[in-house]
Structures are given as C-alpha cells and as structure tokens.
C-alpha cells in the first residue's frame, strides 16, 4: 500500500530543510516490519510543494508502526513543523492496473 501526503514549505524556508528532516525520520521508520521505502517528489512548477510517498506491505504494518511511539521520530517531526504544512492525501492500495509502453516492464 502507499501512504501519500503533500508538503508545502513555508516562505523563508527551503525544501532541502524539510528533506533533511524527512530523510532522518524515514531512516528510522523504514526499519519497521513491512516498510518498503519512501520517495519525495518536488512539484515541477513550484519548488516549495513536495509529495511524499511511503510504501508498505500492508495497511496493518503501517498502522502498527504508527501505534508505537518513537520519541526520536516525534522529535524530528516536531523540528520540521515550523517550516512546513503537511496535508495527508490518503492511503492507497498497490496498483491494480499498470500500463507500460511497449518493451518496458513495471518496476518490481
């Protein structure tokens, strides 16, 4: 499954500031059972808007990680709060349909 959220970096701050905190928190979170990686994408026409995608084996795995308070992760998230606004987009199942150009294979 995918957990997707949008990050808007506040004026006077940079996406790199958020990315630093995001990488530090992700390195810890990704040690949880079922974690499959994270991605951070910058919007093409607005460098202060990012989309983050966390991949998990299942919603249950992600919920289990969320249910276990990690003070280090909480501290990192609090440190980023003053310079960004995070909006959850939602939780999505892995794709049911993948259409690739001829000769290409979907990433595994």
UniProtKB/TrEMBL annotation:
This is Antibiotic biosynthesis monooxygenase. Residues 4-63 form the ABM domain. Pfam families: ABM (PF03992). The lineage of its organism: Bacteria, Pseudomonadati, Pseudomonadota, Gammaproteobacteria, Pseudomonadales. Gene3D superfamilies: 3.30.70.100. Signal peptide: none annotated. GO terms for molecular function: monooxygenase activity. Keywords: Monooxygenase, Oxidoreductase.
